[in-house]
Amino acid sequence: MAENENRIEHEYGGSQIEVLEGLEPVRKRPGMYIGSTGPKGLHHLVYEIVDNSIDEALAGYCNHIEVTIKKGDIIEVTDNGRGIPVGIQPKMGIPAVTVVFTVLHAGGKFGGENSGYKVSGGLHGVGASVVNALSEWLTVRVRTDGSEYEQTFHRGKEDGPLKKIGPAQTTGTTVTFKPDPEMFEELVFNYDTLLVRLREEAFLNAGVRITLTDERGEEPVVQSMCYEGGIRSFVDHIHRRRQLEVLHPEVIYIKGQQGDMVAEVALQYNNSYNELILSFANNVNTPDGGTHEEGFKTALTRVFNDFGREKGYLKDKDENLSGSDVREGLTAVISVKLTEAQFEGQTKAKLGNTEVRSLVSSIVYEKLKEYFEENPGVAKAVFEKATQAARAREAAKKARELVRRKSALETSRMPGKLADCREKDPSKTEIYIVEGDSAGGSAKMGRDSNIQAILPLWGKMLNVEKARLDKVYGNEKMMPVVTALGCGIGEDFDLSKLRYHKVFIMADADVDGSHICTLMLTFFFRFMRPLIEGGHVYIAQPPLFKLAKGQQVKYAYNEAEMSKMSAEMGQGVKVSRYKGLGEMNPEQLWETTMNPENRVIVQISIEDAERADETFTILMGDKVEPRREFIEQNAKYANLDI
After folding, report:
1. Whole-angstrom Cα distance, residue 310 to residue 319?
2. Could you tell me the fold of the domain covering 417-542+578-638?
3. CA-to-CA distance for 486 and 505, rounded, in angstroms?
4. What are the sequence ranges of the domains in the chain?
5. Known catalytic membership, residue 508
6. Which residue in the list 24, 318, 512, 559 is annotated as catalytic?
7. Is 420 a catalytic residue?
8. Annotated catalytic residue, options 180, 264, 430, 508
9. Catalytic residue at 374?
10. pLDDT digit string (tens) for 26-80?
């Protein structure tokens, strides 16, 4: 990799490794350092080690990073950077590499102008030591100055001193580790989860190759990624994956620099009604945004309104376009790199540097306005999209006011088909949104009416992926759900007004049922997302089979389970397949699907907004894929009633 503008010529040796404090708290409170001890925290271990290699790439010394999932879910990360320094760290009197892996807040990222890095994602310098502390064992091998060195650790403690193990023809670092079963709830790495994150890193670092290999199966699975187009390729990839039609062929690319701070923005409009803005600071995804996103959004709205009035797209009598108007159908990637990144919390979800806001805002305003001047066809297309969004926003406002007035005049605001429960404490209640009147009737008779409410749905629901908010208001299928839940939609949404803390979608265990589930989940995701984020949305899992032998009755939720149960029950077992919820009598429906003591339920969680957004776009867009994939990939089984 050619030397780039971020390369630093300072010496990178033992004296550059600064020590801030000890390591002991990590095993006591792992969640403080990696977010959780569930799957998210497990994968975070990989990201911490990869981020150290990315820092070498940012500094101009590394162009290939290899991540391998070995049998037994052991992770190995190798880079061709300079190698972690092996010289003695003056303050500690031990090799710098040992300090990096055994002392919290030790790294080459704290020394300002004399540090080993000018730009770094690993702001807190805890990555390597935290991974070591939370691993059953870890081995680090360093290739530097013509020699290879090795040191091993168990649960954060050294097995012995750093050893020279032989000559080395190359430079770089290899870290191999096995997560500690004492620390994590599960130890199986998800290939797709790692692939998405590593692909992001490849997009954000144009020219750096990242290879992911999974050796756990009979044949290795290998994906090697290198994108010379950087974040422009990222935007293009998003649109191709989501099968979206773009409004202009070229991805608009903007770049600017102020001192050591560099900002890049890539954006393109598509024919959907949704926006997707992904932001990064020093390659770290900032899902909660921050000053770089704020600067971008402010400038985008200003450009549209100023340019629109200059060119007559907006008349004197017209109101200014809102931020949501100008972002409808927008896909944008914002990437900033700066010396002293200020994140909120160890998970780095939000950027706080105020100087970034002005840099991003100024370059987007100036260069996007210039782009529109030079490309009037593109300007016209995106302005038409924004003005249509503005008209729809006004229509939604009128529809919302109409719904409010109508509700105020009605003596009973609850939908006629709702069978409510007696309990008034929302934390103790649940609502079942049931497909079909017959199933709804069985559910009403079979439920625990003290805590369970039933709302039947009928007919084909609105696909909100292809509709703006104004089409939702007054919709006879969607508005009863909104009214029953009580917390509003869109900008009116208020989670504190939710009438039931568990919201179940109950549909047949077939393709049509999955379609109903996906339509409802799409509605929640687009217009009531905090419901999902707060863990309030579930899918009830009705069984597919009933197995009976004498007085013994069992239920199976798939064919494999049915075959196993049938074999266990022996000869004479009678197997019945349910065609739908409507076939079950109230007692069966209660016993199999609604009884909190033995029901099987799926809690919907949005671990990654971008991937969930992509799933809904693909499933509910113009080109529809199999519906059941959503549940398999984005839901997890839970029984929270035990």
Report:
1. 14
2. Rossmann fold (3.40.50)
3. 17
4. 14-225, 231-393, 417-542+578-638
5. yes
6. 512
7. no
8. 508
9. no
10. 888 888 888 788 898 999 999 999 988 988 888 889 999 999 999 999 999 999 9
